[in-house]
Design a protein that fits this description.
Layout: H1 3-29, H2 37-53, H3 58-81, H4 87-106, E1 110-112, H5 121-124, H6 130-154, H7 156-166, H8 168-173, H9 178-204, E2 206-208, H10 215-230, H11 235-258, E3 260-261, E4 264-265, H12 271-294
Helix pairs in contact: 1-6, 1-9, 1-10, 1-11, 2-3, 2-4, 2-9, 3-4, 3-9, 6-7, 6-11, 7-9, 10-11, 10-12, 11-12
Length: 295
């Protein structure tokens, strides 16, 4: 693996780490299996790309994308809490609807950002090489999101989200409206996913309706790898582990794609196979470790 490949993997790990933090919030904190993220990531990308092409400030486009992702997540949560649709089915329905909505937003399957101003231009303007601009911007945004989510979950509303995920019946008996908390939590999760998609689109110079395929698989793989390698004893450590797990996952993918065994080597089309192997390895590693310690 070359230096540029490793740098690119770290960049991807950081920007998709924002998505992983959102996935962790629903799957681990709220115990709400949410497949909406496969649609909310390209939703954020499409909103940001279209906004920039219409003259909107690239930083403001990130805020608009985050709001759009929040609404998408809120729709899933409302279908589940108010209309009693199973959470998996509700998220699948929203994800399917978002495919058409994203095409409608972009007036086509994709939007190019060539020649448009992005959040990276300000960093490059200070004389920083372009290949380091992404690392700086993604690292800064990842740090801001990580700090915010740890602070938020320590607040009164955040504690209510933790309680709903841990014991909804108990928190409901205390007079807390669990439906509102779930809507807020799932909305926030998808808002972060959309923010990640918006940053990816500005980095790649385009938004595409198919860029969200496999997002949930990558998110869960990163969460599992992070928990296995770094632990999750506290809230702060759990989210740090999720972010680091995203970086490790991207590095492992880049390393695997560069390996060659005789005449055999992995192709980009083998990405799902590599992901499955990584997830299986992360899942069985704790049990193997426990058996070795017992022996």
């Amino acid at each position: 693996m070359t230096w540029y490949a490793a740098l690119g993997a770290v960049e991807q790990g950081l920007v998709y780490g924002i998505m992983v933090i959102g996935v962790y919030l629903t799957f681990r904190i709220l115990d709400f299996p949410d497949l909406t993220v496969d649609g909310s990531l390209p939703l954020g990308a499409s909103i940001s790309a279209v906004a920039i092409t219409h003259g909107v400030n690239p930083y403001l486009s990130l805020v608009i994308a985050l709001a759009g992702g929040f609404l998408a997540g809120a729709v899933t949560a409302i279908l589940n809490t108010k209309f009693k649709i199973l959470h998996l089915l509700a998220s699948i329905l929203t994800m399917i609807a978002l495919y058409s909505i994203n095409i409608r937003i972009m007036s086509g399957p994709n939007v190019a950002l060539l020649g448009q101003e992005t959040v990276f231009d300000a960093v490059i303007g200070y004389g920083i090489p372009a290949h380091f601009a992404g690392l700086i911007i993604f690292g800064l945004f990842a740090l801001i999101v990580l700090s915010f989510i740890v602070w938020f979950l320590g607040s009164e509303i955040g504690q209510a989200i933790l309680a709903v995920g841990d014991n909804p019946q108990m928190i409901r008996s205390l007079g807390v409206n669990t439906d509102t908390i779930i809507i807020l939590g799932v909305g926030l999760s998808n808002g972060l996913v959309a923010l990640s998609g918006a940053l990816v689109a500005q980095n790649q110079g385009a938004a595409d309706v198919g860029m969200g395929i496999g997002t949930i698989v990558a998110g869960l793989a990163s969460v599992i790898i992070g928990e296995t390698l770094f632990g999750c004893n506290t809230i702060a450590r759990a989210f740090i582990a999720a972010l680091l797990g995203s970086v490790v996952y991207r590095l492992a993918i880049a390393l695997a794609l560069g390996l060659e065994f005789g005449g055999f080597r992995f192709n980009p089309s083998d990405l799902n196979l590599i992901t499955a192997v990584l997830v299986i390895s992360a899942l069985i590693a704790p049990n193997l470790k426990k058996r070795l310690i017992q022996r």
